[in-house]
């Protein structure tokens, strides 16, 4: 296993056309479907980074700030922005895209932690995160600050 990996090596983008099976009675994406897509995208980013199987350890707070309408494309993007000894933190961002106009709007963002596993299913070490470009360093720093900001907001909202 490589001892280092980059933000760019973990970058994952998925798209899903919102069809009736994943909508509620208003023709909008079911929250559970969006969370499912986010978990898959985050896991793929974690696997690409670590070259190992990963399992979801946690998912931070999620606010659905804009709906995804039937017929729109959900664009799910994720990348590793922080690591521990056996864990990777992944930012996952979801946008809704109108396929006729290419307009996108933010729908939700959350932060996941995945644990890497060896062939026996026990936690295994992950590479060190490197940011060889300014763009990657900015992505990492933005994700770290975004997670802090989201956690502060949740603490204030629930008087924690």
TrEMBL record:
<protein>
    <submittedName>
        <fullName>Thioesterase superfamily protein</fullName>
    </submittedName>
</protein>
<dbReference type="GO" id="GO:0009062">
    <property type="term" value="P:fatty acid catabolic process"/>
</dbReference>
<feature type="region of interest" description="Disordered">
    <location>
        <begin position="122"/>
        <end position="146"/>
    </location>
</feature>
<dbReference type="InterPro" id="IPR033120">
    <property type="entry name" value="HOTDOG_ACOT"/>
</dbReference>
<dbReference type="Pfam" id="PF03061">
    <property type="entry name" value="4HBT"/>
</dbReference>
<dbReference type="InterPro" id="IPR040170">
    <property type="entry name" value="Cytosol_ACT"/>
</dbReference>
<keyword id="KW-0378">Hydrolase</keyword>
<dbReference type="GO" id="GO:0005829">
    <property type="term" value="C:cytosol"/>
</dbReference>
<feature type="domain" description="HotDog ACOT-type">
    <location>
        <begin position="8"/>
        <end position="120"/>
    </location>
</feature>
<dbReference type="InterPro" id="IPR006683">
    <property type="entry name" value="Thioestr_dom"/>
</dbReference>
<dbReference type="InterPro" id="IPR029069">
    <property type="entry name" value="HotDog_dom_sf"/>
</dbReference>
<feature type="compositionally biased region" description="Basic and acidic residues">
    <location>
        <begin position="137"/>
        <end position="146"/>
    </location>
</feature>
<dbReference type="GO" id="GO:0006637">
    <property type="term" value="P:acyl-CoA metabolic process"/>
</dbReference>
<dbReference type="GO" id="GO:0052816">
    <property type="term" value="F:long-chain fatty acyl-CoA hydrolase activity"/>
</dbReference>
């Amino acid at each position: 296993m490589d001892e280092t990996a980059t933000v760019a090596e973990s970058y994952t983008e998925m798209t899903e056309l919102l069809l009736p099976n994943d909508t509620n009675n208003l023709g909008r994406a079911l929250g559970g479907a969006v969370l499912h897509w986010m978990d898959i995208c985050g896991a793929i980013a974690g696997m690409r980074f670590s070259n190992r199987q990963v399992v979801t350890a946690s998912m931070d707070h999620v606010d659905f700030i804009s709906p995804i309408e039937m017929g729109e494309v959900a664009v799910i993007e994720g990348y590793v922005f922080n690591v521990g000894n056996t864990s990777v933190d992944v930012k996952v961002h979801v946008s809704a895209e109108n396929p006729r106009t290419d307009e996108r709007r933010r729908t939700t963002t959350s932060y996941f932690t995945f644990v890497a596993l060896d062939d026996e299913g026990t936690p295994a070490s992950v590479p060190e995160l490197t940011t060889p470009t300014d763009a990657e360093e900015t992505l990492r720093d933005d994700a770290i600050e975004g997670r802090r900001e989201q956690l502060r907001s949740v603490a204030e909202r629930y008087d924690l």
